[in-house]
């Protein structure tokens, strides 16, 4: 596992997906690095458009790239929009990685996900368990696209010597999360649902599935800090898991969110909803050896995320107005 020093200071650094949850956390953290930050909105460049991506890279010539743009969503979004999760994520990965290579990019970080590991791989999930067994069916298209991105980064490194690295974050949450009622991840979904129940005085909140699956949750500013650390110090084809090394059942997690929000009613479980993979805990020993560990506890992170949700007028203003109509009207869009 090679370790090198890579300076961000003074470099042209492109954050792809800078308006997303991870991208905006990277932007906050990169503000301390004295880099020349490059961004481009989706309305200017759709990263699925190969010619547009090539032209933008040729004009801007970023020296470092954080590839945090992707089609992202929770278990239902992944399982419903299967074509988009495969097509968008394959296109974004191939376009950006190839353009980075062709335009002299010195370093690139590709974002995989803990869902690239086999559904029943031994826990905690080690980096070398990728491609050792069948994937979780609810997110197979997304995982296949992510595995292709990882293999691209690996291939450009072995064939051309490109310093492209891949990180595997666990389930993330925090400011900038997507609070869509159907398509969000569990943390955002439960923050919104418990908050709305508290405000409306509802006596019962329904949590999807059986409550028995176990998940690991990392606050997104911790993730961004780990990524900057690895970008500056890590250079190897081997994947690096990024997580806390701690897990919790969904039922226990729901109790934590309810307590943080001050919801005192009952919690029920809708077992017609998918559980997904039964357990997903990352082995973070490689990350630990590389000198990084998470700082923000789950309790603290939920409080911070709840505060960020309340301050996020994209969700709280319109939700009060008409939550259901909005969800139906934009059913193909996982963010709005
Ligand atoms: N969230 C999580 O729990 C986890 C996330 N990851 C990975 O981290 C990365 C970031 O995820 P996260 O921040 O949560 O996701 P978000 O959905 O919050 O952000 C994704 C970003 O990608 C942009 N984007 C999507 N499609 C396109 C496109 N076709 N052209 C241009 N830009 C596009 C979005 O643009 P716009 O703002 O216009 O919508 C948005 O800025 C992804 O690679 C994801 O797979 C990995 C593990 C867990
Ligand atoms: C980050 C990760 O995200 C996805 O995988 P996931 O871990 O299954 O993510 P999730 O957050 O949607 O669910 C976690 C657990 O929570 C339960 N759950 C309860 N109640 C709600 C609820 O209201 N919403 C959601 N979404 N889940 C709920 C749900 O049934 C499941 O058991 C993949 O897309 C994958 O591609 C990926 O990378």
Automatic annotation (TrEMBL):
Reactions listed under catalytic activity = GDP-beta-L-fucose + NADP(+) = GDP-4-dehydro-alpha-D-rhamnose + NADPH + H(+)
Pathway(s) the chain acts in: Nucleotide-sugar biosynthesis; GDP-L-fucose biosynthesis via de novo pathway; GDP-L-fucose from GDP-alpha-D-mannose: step 2/2
Q: Which PANTHER family match?
A: GDP-L-FUCOSE SYNTHASE
Where, in this chain's numbering, is substrate bound? 193, 208, 215, 275
Positions of the NAD-dependent epimerase/dehydratase domain? 13-243
Where NADP(+) binds, per the record, is at 17-23, 146, 169-172, 185
Biological process, per Gene Ontology = 'de novo' GDP-L-fucose biosynthetic process
What keywords appear on the UniProt entry?
A: Isomerase, Multifunctional enzyme, NADP, Oxidoreductase
Coding gene?
fcl
Query: Example GO molecular function term?
Result: GDP-L-fucose synthase activity
Has the keyword Isomerase been applied to this entry?
yes
Q: What is the role of this chain?
A: Catalyzes the two-step NADP-dependent conversion of GDP-4-dehydro-6-deoxy-D-mannose to GDP-fucose, involving an epimerase and a reductase reaction.
Name by which UniProt lists this protein: GDP-L-fucose synthase
């Amino acid at each position: 596992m090679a370790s090198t020093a890579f300076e961000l200071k003074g470099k042209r650094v492109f954050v792809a997906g800078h308006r997303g949850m991870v991208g905006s956390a990277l932007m906050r953290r990169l503000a301390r690095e004295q880099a020349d930050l490059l961004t481009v909105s989706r309305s200017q460049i759709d990263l699925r458009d190969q010619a547009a991506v090539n032209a933008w890279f040729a004009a801007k010539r970023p020296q470092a790239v954080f590839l945090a743009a992707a089609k992202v969503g929770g278990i239902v979004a992944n399982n419903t929009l299967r074509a988009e999760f495969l097509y968008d994520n394959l296109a974004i990965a191939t376009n950006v990685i190839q353009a980075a290579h062709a335009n002299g990019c010195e370093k690139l970080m590709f974002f995989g996900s803990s869902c690239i590991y086999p559904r029943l791989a031994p826990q905690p999930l080690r980096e070398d368990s990728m491609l050792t067994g069948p994937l979780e069916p609810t997110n197979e298209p997304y995982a296949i696209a992510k595995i292709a991105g990882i293999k691209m980064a690996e291939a450009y490194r072995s064939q051309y010597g490109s310093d492209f690295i891949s990180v595997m974050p666990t389930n993330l949450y925090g400011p900038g999360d997507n609070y869509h009622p159907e398509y969000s991840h569990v943390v955002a979904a439960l923050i919104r649902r418990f908050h709305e129940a508290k405000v409306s005085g509802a006596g019962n909140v329904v949590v999807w599935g059986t409550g028995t699956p176990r998940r690991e949750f990392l606050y997104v500013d911790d993730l961004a800090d780990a990524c900057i650390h690895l970008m500056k110090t890590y250079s190897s084809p081997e994947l690096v898991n990024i997580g806390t090394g701690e897990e919790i059942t969904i039922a226990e997690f729901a109790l934590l969110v309810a307590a943080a929000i001050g919801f005192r009613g009952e919690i029920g479980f809708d077992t017609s909803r998918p559980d997904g993979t039964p357990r997903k805990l990352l082995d973070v020993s490689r990350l630990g050896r590389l000198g990084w560990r998470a700082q923000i506890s789950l309790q603290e992170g939920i409080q911070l995320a709840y505060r960020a949700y309340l301050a996020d007028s994209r969700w709280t203003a319109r939700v009060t107005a008409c939550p259901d109509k909005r969800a139906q009207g934009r059913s193909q869009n996982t963010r709005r």
